[in-house]
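so the lab meeting is tmrw and i was supposed to have these ready like two days ago... anyway. pasting both below. for each one the top line is the aa sequence and the line under it is the structure tokens. i havent really looked at them closely yet so no promises
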Amino acid sequence: MSSEPVDKDQFGRRAAPASPIVPKTASEALRPELGTPPPKRSRRSRSQVVVFFNFLLSLIILIVLGAGAAVFFGKREFEGPGPNATTTTFMVRPNSGVSEIAEQLERRGLIADARIFRAGVRAYGNDSAFKAGEYEIKVGASMHEIMDLMKSGKSVLYSLTIPEGLTVEQAFQRIAGEEALSGDMPAELPPEGSLIADTQRFTRGATRKQIIDKMMADQTQLVQSIWDRRVDGLPLADINEFVTLASIVEKETARGDERSRVAAVFINRLNKGMRLQSDPTIIYGIYGGKGKPADQPIRQSDIEKRTAYNTYVINGLPPTPIANPGRAALEAVANPSVTDDLYFVADGTGGHVFAATLDEHNENVARWRAIEKQATEAAAKAAAQPDADDAAAPADGAAAE
């Protein structure tokens, strides 16, 4: 038996016989050897269907990523500050669509991109939620804030104030001149005293007829509510006489602390059958609802002029009010002061001094005329002073030379 040694590996197993060494030429030794071949692809992996679905999946992923990026950047733009550099107003016309509004906003420089605004409005489900009106767009308002504002309907409100004591004709002039209102004025004036003296709030485009109708309805409600709470025993035949006397009180004094006392004077005179002798009734009888020019005084001939309203020559009350009385004047007539006063005259301080007898009244009138005289003389002296200064100027100049 041969005793040749046998090669074994580290685990004691017989090692494979060594391959014989085949000598190579220099060119063969330098030639690169072939690498490990790739695994063979299955028929399934080579299928066109699989290739298509792989492409489709990749496309979907790209679309989702693109859409996510678009939503992210679009939302940031929709929520971020806008380009508006100054507070301005924007009108949403009735029946305007989101696309039309978006384009107008972009043209006005109130939003950066109409497409993003449209997409944002639709994403929030507000396609048909916008309300017509005029809106105030703040500086830097975002598209989201503009959307919320137009959805809320909080339009810009305008104010029209009709002060107490204006006639219907004078009130109509103010209403006609309000440029934020629309529509024509009524062809005929409503009855004197039928418009409430108050501040009306409205949105641009409201009609003048709407404002007038509301003022008439509010005045009717106000007058009725106060008439229903009047004290007993007033010498007034009906609600028209109530408003008429209130309009006279309104024109006689603007002082809230003496309205009820002025009302008491007229109530006492009516109870005694005395004429009211109210100067504002003279003016209305001559000039009507237009009012007396500011530079036109009441002359003795005016006091004696017979008109249906001149309470110096007629008994009782005029046939209609002479102005639109306010709440305070109506309240004063419905609940007058309890006094014996029959007269009053201006006191020179913006108020009046009252008297129960003619002698007291004549003394008060004399004091008032003295005050008027002093005021007239002072005004004449002040008017003459500039002329005196002008005359002295050349002499001063000559002396300086």
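ok protien two:
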Amino acid sequence: MMIVSAAGSVLASSGFQVPSIDEFLPPEIMFQGTPFALNRIILIRLIATVVMLLVLGITAMRARLVPGRWQGAVEWIVEFIRDKIVYEVMGEVRGKRYVPMITTIFLSLLVFNICGIVPGMNIAASATIVVPLMWALWTFCQYWIAAVRGKGLKKYLKDELLPDGVPWPIYFILVPMQLLDIVVIRPFSLTIRLFANMIAGHILVALCFSATQFFLIDAENKLLMGFGAITFLGGFIMILFEAFVAAIQAFIFATLSTVYINLSYPEELE
């Protein structure tokens, strides 16, 4: 405990800078002052998108009837999204329409999230509100389109807001709650879940390695250098954990998007 207190005192007295939310609002580095201005995060998104499209495009062009290891891995991911997410929730007949959409969401978020542990990028391209919100709004539009196509707007709103078997006084409470759910809570929950996880992961990794640099290089108290080894190990563990979280968050977002769209269809068509 005395060593931990000493470490805290050294950090406080040395002006050690703890990573903060400000890192997610970096200054513009290209085309400043124009509508096409780019900061570091936007540039990472563009690079990640180009790399992803090139990899998928080259894989498709070189596809063989008997796939090699790389083609097999890509096909396994696509089939996993189709079979274990879309068809598992919607069924094959209904799900075929949404396989391209859910595959796009899953792969984009996976690649964007992984950028947080790629050397030279070191921040998830999905770690600002824009990317999660964009995919959430796409899901929002699709489940309303599915509702209008499957039930008609009037019947969909009646089923959601005025379910059968509920005493009529309860409707005064139930209607605004249900309306809030389908209009605000669903897209908001998709957005905030991904956004918060990517921010938290980046800050924890950055904090571990910032502390490692401080204890091993910047700190004048050599007795505390052992903390540098501990924080380095912690940072390495957090990188592995971030890779896991990147995949899990892409899976959760894609699955919930599929579930929300499926809920808009008539039950007898499921």
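from a quick look at the 2nd one: The chain has nine helices and two strands. The two ends are 59 Å apart (CA to CA). will dig more after coffe
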